[in-house]
Amino acid sequence: MNEEEKENKEEKVEEKEEKKEAKPAQGQNKLVMVLVIVAVVLAGLYFLGRTLSRKIGQGIAGRVLSGISGKNVNVDSGGEKVTITGEDGKVAFETGGNLPDSFPKDFPVYPGAKLVSSFSAKGEEGDGISVVWETGDSLDKVSSFYKKALTENGWKVESTFEQNGSFTSTFKKAETGGFVGATAEEGGKVTISATIGVK
Q1: H helices present in the chain, as ranges
Q2: Is the dihedral of CA 99, 101, 103, 109 positive or negative?
Q3: What letter does residue 103 receive in the DSSP assignment?
Q4: Which parts of the sequence are annotated with region: Disordered (predicted)?
Q5: Per DSSP, what are the bridge partners of residue 156?
Q6: Is 149 in contact with 108 (CB distance < 8 Å)?
Q7: pLDDT recorded at residue 88
Q8: What average pLDDT does the segment 93-118 reach?
Q9: How far is CA 76 from the centre of its chain?
Q10: Is 52 helix (H, G, I), strand (E, B) or coil?
Q11: What pTM value is reported for the model?
């Protein structure tokens, strides 16, 4: 065997080794691509499943409530809000968000309090609202605010009940009435709740 043949053989051996090294890299690239595609498909199915399960849940809840009440009830939930519509009226539950549209404009809201949840109902017998806020201020400060602000805004305070860690006042103005209360919670927070009914 001459020198030239030896060099050709060595070059062919080197080429084969390079091809062997390239194949695992190509195989790894294919594996990575397959894993990415599977991840995208699974993520799509997850979000599709969440949407479908919410829609299915709404349908089931509507049928259950219709069966219990004997009337037609639709349930619609979007994000943090659930609305139930029946023949006698509409009920809406919301976490966070805004005050219900029917919330009295002249009812005092504690300054800086964070809206936690709200409930509103509209029906033949009247409208009802229930709202919950949170504040980092003391219970004494909150109760002093409501004792003063209710009367300043034209609400007649009918009774006030206080005990360790909480207070409740009932109020009325024309056809609107209800109660407001506050409770000291662990961690220094105070929960304020107001329930208002309009005939």
Answers
A1: 3-69, 139-152
A2: positive
A3: S
A4: 1-24
A5: 172
A6: yes
A7: 62
A8: 85
A9: 14
A10: helix
A11: 0.58
**Residue 167: in which H helix or E strand, if any?**
strand 166-173
CB atoms within 10 A of CB 120: 21
Q: Hey, CA dihedral for 85, 123, 149, 153, is it positive or negative?
A: positive
Mean pLDDT of 36-61: 42
Q: What is the C-alpha to C-alpha distance for residues 21 and 10, in angstroms, rounded to an integer?
A: 17
Please give the order of strands across the beta sheet that includes 156-163: 73-78, 81-86, 89-95, 114-123, 126-135, 190-198, 176-184, 166-173, 156-163
**What are the structure tokens assigned to 38, written together?**
């599977």
CATH number for the 88-198 domain, one of 3.40.50, 1.10.1060, 2.60.40, 3.40.1000? 3.40.1000
Token pair 């690239």 is found at 29
CA atoms within 13 A on the CB side of 3: 0
